[in-house]
Amino acid sequence: MSSLADKGLNLSKNAFFSFMISKASGIMKKPVKVGLLLTTAYEKLTDANSNESGLDQIKDIMFRFIRLVKAYYNGTYRDINTKTLLLGVAVLVYVVTPLDLVPDFIPILGFADDLSLMAWFINAFQEEMQKFQVWEEGSVAVGHS
Which segments cross the bilayer (predicted)? Predict the structure, then answer.
């Protein structure tokens, strides 16, 4: 996954992604917009059909990130760096934006840039995601979700 993550790293340095970060910053101030973003991202990830290796793993981790953002906004989970949260939301904004560097209507390639950006995020913020997974599994074990 590192070459995919490397492509995502390059995308994360792109001016268009910087624009996505600024959009994410505005969205994060409006919980209703965050909810809409999470729903849209979830639907897009659910609809993603690809033979790319690791797609299911990437989708599972991004679904976990969606749950993390929900937990953050409902106040049950706060143990995350604000910059990580911002970059993750920016990745989701990028994923749901139909016109990005490689438009999604282009077969296979349209989702490849989204995948590489998600792979970069997962690779760069593994520790934060694992910390949330441990918290989430502990919450479920004691009956809170």
Answer: 80-99
φ/ψ bin of 53: left (φ > 0), alpha (ψ from -120 to 50), beta (otherwise): beta
Radius of gyration for the chain, computed over Cα atoms and rounded to the nearest angstrom:
15
8-state DSSP, 102: S
User: pLDDT tens digits, residue range 51-78?
Assistant: 555 667 778 888 899 999 999 999 999 9
Contact 89, 27 (CB under 8 A): yes
- CA distances 28 to 9, 16, 78, 88, 126, Å, are 22, 18, 14, 11, 21
DSSP SS3 for 109: helix
106: left (phi over 0), alpha (psi -120 to 50) or beta: beta
Q: Which residue has the tokens 């995948």?
A: 115
